[in-house]
Design goal:
Helix content: over 70%
Shape: globular
Distance between the termini: 24 Å
Radius of gyration: 13 Å
Order of helices and strands: HHHH
Strand content: under 5%
Length: 71
C-alpha cells in the first residue's frame, strides 16, 4: 500500500511539473496548501471564476496526460 501511495505521489508531482504556472500554482495552493478559492484569487490577483477555470483546465490536462501515458 505504501509503495502504491508513493508511486501515485510521484506521478502527480511529475504531472504538476509539466503544467504551465497559471494552472500549476492554483492547483498547488488549493490541494496542497488548503487555501480557499477566495484566498487564492486574492493571492494571485485573479478573479474567482478565472481561478476555477485554471483549476479545471489544469486537472483536465493532467487527466489527458495520464490517460496517454497509460495507453
Amino acid at each position: 500500500l505504501l509503495n502504491a501511495l508513493s508511486s501515485c505521489k510521484a506521478e502527480i508531482t511529475s504531472l504538476l511539473s509539466r503544467l504551465p504556472a497559471n494552472y500549476k500554482n492554483p492547483l498547488m495552493l488549493y490541494y496542497f496548501e488548503n487555501m480557499s478559492y477566495k484566498e487564492i484569487s486574492e493571492k494571485l490577483d485573479i478573479k474567482v471564476n478565472t481561478l476555477k477555470s485554471y483549476i479545471f483546465r489544469g486537472k483536465e490536462l493532467m487527466k489527458d496526460w495520464l490517460q496517454k501515458d497509460n495507453e
